[in-house]
Design brief:
15 strands; homodimer; Arc Repressor Mutant, subunit A
Chain lengths: ~400, ~400
């Protein structure tokens, strides 16, 4: 946490490196990193054949990547091969790490992920953030961040950047939380409250959750709709392996799709929005449960033990989700819908009615629904991996620091 | 219509030319064409400064583009300038042309558009295609196509490709009409029924209508939702200047977004879909009008003359559109919604209730709704321009032919 870091923010879609010699070299450095990351350990010759460049060109790049602590040599390959023995290359377990952080309604969490994708340090603080001002919350978060960075540094890593997941609307290409109703934040420039030397980026937790699913999920296709819930209903749309962000950065507001246009009023200004049927508060009331700190766990427990009111409430929420998702599937034609976050844990009681709606409202085969295996850590992991991916995509950004 | 043509199909998003010398040169040829097309006439020096390459590199490419009949020299620039007089370059009004065709429910239409974007030949045939087999329809369409190509050839043009707009679902990256309910077609390989020497491509009319709006509309932003209607409700989503196609190619089915989940049954298998409230049939019945060939004109005429039943029917359709669009806007966060096709002509009576729903269901400023000025020709023009754009993007595709 010394010199200011280069810009590791993910590029806005369509903003690519230019077709200059320099830009092409930077792209090729990224191709080398991705080849070794996906297929490694690989010899230099194998990398060259993977990305379609000469061994000489790859060797020069690999030398730089080793100097920058992005790749490491594992020693000579097993003997018996023809020619000069090559050394297998692997993505470095030292060097740059991505710092991910999450501002949850009921907790704060931070983790460090190395270039190999392993979590190397983490810190959590439980306690409600509802209605707290952004300053004390970000102060506590910064303490956790410094603790995690120090721990990572002891392990031979250094922080290549920080990405923060927030349950709210973030203006596109900014670090401004436009609205986070469950925290009570409005038009807050979070970037100014976070450690500047880590070049912090800020994004919606549903977006980071979907990216985690894309990068870490088992067999997740490049086109899917990710639906999650903490307090509100969050969703994110991934198209051809990229997040669909929307003009203002507000895409994915599935929670405010009208399900029954004359239904109950919603704080968003609408009526009968999905959140009025499938949001945490609505389900709690329908199930006849008093406000409770660990509501999601309680719902799962009671549903599991056969509580009729809870099962009916979850089944009705599944129906509402199915109606809203029918519209979304008709508009977006995703390959699959993934239920993540809190919805994953409740899926046994949501899925039957949800899938019945999707099936019943489609002439052809219905869009398949799968359940995330990442659990509630998706947004935090997605944030840390966003920094890691930015380094893999354009490794030259860390050249000055290394 | 002699030698087989190169592939001028628009590339699947993300499939770019490779970073080889050859690929980079092809990309740069496209940049030259787009610079001259958008800003021309331009001198070679001006092109070079526009795209950030040396004058020498640009000059070699320009020579090729002139030989291929894609650019033409307008003669020496006005005197009085310092240095060797340059010759202004313009996009050619001869050479390759895009052939667009439309299979409408009540008509067939074909046009030829030159690289400057001007319509140079056209042919139309009125008459219902409802329930007719694909073979006789495509035979008639092929007659129109040959007539238009012959007319264009007399004018110094040659057909660089054919794109056909169809009111139905087209499987992605194929020419197969999976379902066109208003024609009665199902799983029809239209490519096999069209003149092979024109390398025909096939796409949904709503997609071509949206592309026309993107390329030809006045001030259309790169992120918008295009809603049109002929018989059904069609929509297309444009994100960062690209069509969002969906996994199977079926994205944009706004007509089957549930508006009132317990509403009337829809042939799609659902209930209360938008088409049950705002589709042509639904509006006709609500307005108390008997089946009629020129229904849209009749509706506009009666609404204009103050017919209460028609005005109520259109206002109710606007309400249903507003509910479905609220969901779509929440999911996609477009910069604007554009009403095109038949909806443009009926917009005076649809817009008040439509906009009231959008405003009333949103806490912040509602997404603006604009009306297309392209009229019902959008899909036909979009098809022809898709071929023209493919030539501008990758001019080398016509090198062999020229």
């Amino acid at each position: 946490m010394t010199a200011p870091l280069p810009d590791t923010r993910p590029p806005r879609k369509g903003r690519a490196l230019p077709d200059t010699q320099h830009g092409i070299r930077r792209r090729n450095l990224g191709r080398v990193m991705h080849a070794v990351s996906a297929e490694g350990p690989l010899s230099r010759a194998a990398v060259a054949s993977h990305i379609g460049l000469t061994r000489a060109a790859v060797s020069t790049m690999v030398d730089d990547l080793i100097r920058w602590e992005l790749l490491e040599e594992l020693g000579p390959e097993r003997p018996g091969r023809v020619g000069r023995p090559g050394s297998a290359l692997a993505v470095s377990g030292r060097g740059p790490a991505g710092i991910g952080a999450e501002v949850g309604v009921d907790h704060l969490a931070v983790c460090a992920v190395d270039l190999r994708g392993r979590v190397r340090a983490r810190a959590v603080r439980h306690g409600s953030n509802r209605g707290r001002a952004p300053e004390p919350v970000t102060e506590e978060l910064t303490d956790l961040i410094r603790r995690v960075v120090t721990e990572a540094e002891r392990d031979g890593l250094w922080a290549a950047g920080l990405a923060v997941a927030v349950p709210g609307l973030i203006a596109r290409d900014s670090r401004t939380v436009v609205r986070a109703p469950n925290l009570g934040w409005r038009d807050t420039d979070l970037g100014a409250l976070l450690p500047a030397e880590l070049s912090p980026t800020v994004d919606n937790e549903a977006n980071f959750g979907a990216l985690a699913e894309l990068w870490l999920g088992a067999g997740t296709p490049p086109d899917f709709l990710h639906v999650s819930a903490e307090i509100g209903i969050g969703a994110a749309v991934v198209v051809d392996g990229d997040l669909l962000r929307g003009t203002r950065g507000f895409a994915g507001e599935l929670g405010h799709v009208p399900v029954r246009p004359d239904g109950p009023e919603c704080p968003c200004g609408g009526r009968g929005c999905l959140e009025q049927y499938a949001g945490e508060e609505a389900v709690r009331r329908a199930a006849g449960i008093e406000p409770h700190e660990e509501l999601l766990g309680l719902l799962a427990e009671r549903a599991d033990s056969g509580d009729r009111a809870v099962r009916t409430a979850l089944s009705d929420a599944g129906t509402a989700l199915g109606i809203a998702l029918t519209g979304a599937v008709n508009l977006l034609d995703p390959e699959t819908v993934v239920l993540g976050g809190a919805l994953a844990g409740l899926s046994p009681w949501l899925l039957p009615s949800l899938e019945a709606e999707l099936r019943g409202r489609t002439a052809g085969p219905a869009c398949p629904v799968t359940v995330s295996t990442l659990g509630p850590e998706g947004p935090l992991l997605g944030a840390a991996h966003a920094v890691v991916r930015a380094v893999l995509d354009d490794p030259a950004v860390v050249a000055e620091r290394a």
